[in-house]
Structures are given as structure tokens and as C-alpha cells.
Here is the input.
Amino acid sequence: MTVAASDRPDPAGRLGRIALYRWWRRSVVGRVDHEAVLARVIEESGWSPRFAFMTMMSAGIAVLGLLLSSPAVVIGAMLISPLMNPILGFGFSLALFDFRELRRSLKALVIGSVAAIAFTALLVLVSPLQAPTAEIVARTRPNLFDLAVALFAALAGTFAIIRGRGDTIVGVAIATALMPPLAVVGYGIATRNAPVGMGAFALFATNFITIALSATVMARFYGFGHHLSRRQSWVQTGLLTLVFIVMAIPLGISLNRIGREALAPRRRGHCCPTGSARTPA
Here is the structure.
């Protein structure tokens, strides 16, 4: 009986994969101080007076920047926002199946988010400026590009934490933009504008879920959670894949709709060019 070439065992390829895996474990994963990284993530991911103060200050700066339509002020709010810490803690906890730390991180994030929304709503209520600015409107229609930005930024941020490259976190904080959407949610509540509030909350949820799950992937890639059983790893992989697919579908539809709206004026211009219709003499 003749065995097809595709069905024959490939010992060279298998040995190559084993050698690559061993090199990665020894030269990359082996150089990571897992205990120190986890200690730092856990320390910064919980609720604390410092976390509460910085969250409120960041929320105040963000909503003022949005009302003034000042990108520089909004960026300043992103830089001091501590919301990234509990989200990364959530991601690492998921990688380890450490549900106690997962609940702790989630508690800090929920309390911080609710406090930020309430504070920004209060500031909007007492503000004489309440018209929706371009900075506000820009955060009400999340799409697939927002997911991609959060994905790349989260991978970079988790890599920076694991490898001890803290200088990268500044750029990650700007890219992920966690606080401005919450400020827009507060604005929507204060002005009773439900579409604006819900759209901004959808953007925040997209960023939160994408950052957390991306941190989980990067943490597993660097050897965190190596104690998990094969079944637990498969459950983890299936859950991450399912969540990304479920998020990507509506965000892709939103991006397609935004693209069609942007092209509509150009298409109308091609169909009816200026000056093509002349009044008969």
C-alpha cells in the first residue's frame, strides 16, 4: 500500500518545532522574573486611595478637554489615568485562572469607572458648555479599527511590563484612551443623550475587553499559567477566540457603515458633477 507524501511523518519538522520551543523556554521565558512581574501587576491593579484620586483627576481633565474640544487636554487625561492597571491585572488573572485576583481587579475597575462617570456627569451639569464637540462625537461610534488599536497597544503594554520596558507605557496609555469614553458616558447622562452615552460605553467596553484578553494572550506566551492543564488551556483559548469573533462582527459592520457614509458625498459628486446641469437659453 502506497502512503501519500502528505501522510508521511515529518521527523525533521517535528524536531525543529521541539528545538524552537526549547530555545524559547530557555532563552526568552527563562529570563522573565515571573514572580516580580506578578507582584507588580497585583500591587497596582487593586483599589487604593491613590487609584481613586488619580481616577477622579483624570476624569475631570478628560471631560474638560472634551467640552473644550482640546486634544492636548484629553491626551493629558489619558496619561494620568490609572485604569489600565486593573485591566492588565484582570488579563493576567485570567491567564493564571486566579479568580480571586480577577475579582479584585474587576472590583477596582468597576468602582473607578462608576466614580469617573458620576464625577464627569456632575461637571457637565454645572458647565455652561454642553454642546457636543468633535472630540465627544468621535468617541460615540466604535468600529473594528478601535479594536485593532486596543489590541496592538495592549500587546505592546503587556510586553513592556513583562520585559521591564516602562517607557512604552506612556504611548500605550495614549493609544488605548480609556478615560475619554467614560467621560463621554458621563456627558451623555448629564445631557440625557442616550445614543452618545451608549456609543461611548460600547467604545470603553471594546477597549477593556480587548486589552484584558490581549494581556492574557501575551502573559501565556511568556510562560504565565504554565501550571494549567491542557483542558484548561483549551477552554481559555476557545473563550478568547469566541469573544474576539463576537466583538469583531458588529465592529466590522460599524466600520463598513462609516466607510459608506464617508464615500456617499463623493459618489453623489460623481453622479451629479457641479455645473453639469445647465439652464436652457
Observations:
- The chain has twelve helices and no strands.
- The radius of gyration is 24 Å.
- Residues 78 and 177 are 6 Å apart (CA to CA).
